[in-house]
Amino acid sequence: MALIVQKFGGSSVRDAERMQNVARIVTAEHDKGNDVIVVVSAQGDTTDELIEKAREINPDPSQRDMDFLLTTGEQISAALLTMLIKKMGYRVTPLTGWQAGFLTDSNHSRARIRRINTERLENEISKQNIVVVTGFQGINRYDDITTLGRGGSDTSAVAIAAALHADKCQIFTDVDGVYTADPRVVKTAKKLDAITYDEMLELASLGAQVLHNRSVEMAKKYNVRLEVLSSLENKPGTIVKEVVKVEKMLIKGVARDDNIARISLVGVPDEPGFAFKVFSLLASLKINVDIILQSIGRDGSKDITFTVAQDDGKRAVDALNEMQESIKFTKIAWDENVSKVSVVGAGMESNPGVAAKMFEALSEANINIHMISTSEIKISVLIDKEFSKSAMNAIHDAFDI
Amino acid sequence: MALIVQKFGGSSVRDAERMQNVARIVTAEHDKGNDVIVVVSAQGDTTDELIEKAREINPDPSQRDMDFLLTTGEQISAALLTMLIKKMGYRVTPLTGWQAGFLTDSNHSRARIRRINTERLENEISKQNIVVVTGFQGINRYDDITTLGRGGSDTSAVAIAAALHADKCQIFTDVDGVYTADPRVVKTAKKLDAITYDEMLELASLGAQVLHNRSVEMAKKYNVRLEVLSSLENKPGTIVKEVVKVEKMLIKGVARDDNIARISLVGVPDEPGFAFKVFSLLASLKINVDIILQSIGRDGSKDITFTVAQDDGKRAVDALNEMQESIKFTKIAWDENVSKVSVVGAGMESNPGVAAKMFEALSEANINIHMISTSEIKISVLIDKEFSKSAMNAIHDAFDI
Question: Is the pTM of this model over 0.90?
């Protein structure tokens, strides 16, 4: 008898019809003689609707109060799913975050799980009850309600799986697994049978929004066997685990990120300390910098170019302009018409040819590379946004994924 | 510095505009230097909408699961009211039933409060925070979520007032107090400045649905000073307390109950034990009997007539028909075209003229009395439903209330 944790996102429970699918999956697992703990998100657009309601009342509500409000969304879907499964003749118990023992820190709206008091969960399972837990939430040590942030239900599911040493944690979504590239962009994209935690983390941070990053980090840390699969189709998904046997496939995926802006500071003095000024200013504004390129000094000055998330672009430029006297650049340029395209694969560190192959593919497609960034399992290039789709296809084809 | 508990019903918080009123009332009380604990119901039709959602999924959900679902309604309104009051510059903390310490028994959907663990409430008040508590809910000793039943938010408010020895418990509604009769029926009805707990209980059970009965019982038991008043108009309401100085007003109110059916058993043997059979049968079906009239035996048989709530009428008649052989009546009659009209007043027990005056008024209005029932502070008559409005007016006028 195994213990399986199954997580269903908002689109999987958005209405009574979709919930039927969920109930079938859950009860089929229970029918095999397994213990099942289900983690649910709020139905469809419930969270957005609640946020809208709050903004009407107060455009700037406190995060504690928002957490108090938003957690009702998961409570409603957990109640409804419980009623549905019970109608099918199963014993099932719904639990909120605090009832399921989720203790978090006090960072409202983005709390981290401190520990799970598993007594209640174990008690329910010992009676062979199916348990339906509200994702995304817990309480802090003052008994105030907290939430784990957007996508936090993935993390809730992995945390339960880790705490109870579950045999598997299944994340059900509306896609049937992790692909080598976004199938809407690259027609030849293939579903992966397996991927390592690190590869999954790189893909997630590059914009392939299948799994919440923190959930993958936690799964890696506690060695939770994750599976990403579809709640609509009954077929195997993608397993995420520590080591995946490298077969012929060198590259696990190609991803792009269009939410990016490039900022260039021209004519910065070629002296120590100026780059520091730029990036400490951005850090103080909590603006994340991604790729950084610094030109070689010439005529006593240099250029510093970097990328940030598009939403942060204007704030970054404004702040830098205010500091122009101190940073002493002669010109600032800002470009949103760029995309970052990346290849990810744990095998590439021992294969120096990967970068060359990627650049060759882009060159043959006549796509100019503005910036390059590499890590052990990833190579990213910054290109003009208009070419991002053809770049993905060219790279995907070149690696024969 | 006083401690005031203020309860606002669903219509008072149904939208952002109505909530503005509520926020004004709460903050005005706080501005006087008082501690304020606010108890809120779910917004407008939220509870009904959630029930409808549940029924779509499962026509017969368990009461535990319904409680788990419905408590989200109060949580949403508490969150929104908190955000609104905070926007006005006040410190305010929202608390769910379990956070506020409500411990109940395990009778889901109609739980009774066992005790309130007041630590958190006292802690918030000691910091001069306004507290917004979700009405209608608590948890049992297994940490399962319970609800107190419809109208239970009144009870939540009184319970907090009792536990913390509040100076006053204000119940805000969409009427401005307790009236001598329903103003929609009796144009000359007057608002009462004060009424006793017992009178309020009689009026409530007679269909004047201003306060939830259990809340009045609890207020009487713990001597909580209640006030019923409007959330829309800024004027004094009606005080409910132990003793009200009887001035010229003998009668506190006239009420009617149209949800009533009269059942007559004709030709029951005039021997001991038959009435017992009838009423033990009804008791076993949990059907409440109100007024009972037994005719004097004649020719060895008698008639038994009684009233029940209209919803129970058919069940009562069916059950009695099944037992005809045992009860031996010759005929059963069932009439829904009746109303019960009552006068209530603590002063009447020492005033034998009250019944006479009431009957005289009805006689002058040509209204026939079918049945009569009296208690120390109440006289009820059963009349034809078509006359209930004119009966109320005739009685109200006669007593010059």
Answer: no
